[in-house]
Specification:
This protein has 90 residues and is mostly helical. The protein is built from two helices and no strands.
Length: 90
């Protein structure tokens, strides 16, 4: 019984660590999205003509980074689910 508890506690620690990393990744992704929107909304003010192109390009790059971070988050979610499955069925 003690061995099972120790194994369960270790799996729970791993799951919490994974979910913690996942939430940090999603928080970064959200920050990138808001930063991209900030750059894109600056287009409506009096700016030099090249600046909207630059701000749009930065926005596209930040949205791409958001997509990559979301994919990393999904990978971590899969790992957490595998640990749950292992805990329940092994």
């Amino acid at each position: 019984m003690t061995r099972w508890r120790a194994k369960g506690a270790e799996l729970l620690r791993q799951e919490v660590a994974i979910l913690d990393r996942r939430h940090a990744i999603l928080a970064r992704a959200i920050a990138f999205t808001y930063t991209a929107l900030l750059y894109l909304t600056k287009r409506q003010t009096q700016l030099p003509e090249a600046l909207p192109v630059v701000s749009f390009s930065v926005g596209v790059l930040l949205l791409g980074a958001t997509a990559l971070l979301v994919l990393a988050s999904l990978r971590l979610s899969r790992r957490a689910i595998k640990l749950e499955r292992q805990e329940l069925f092994d």
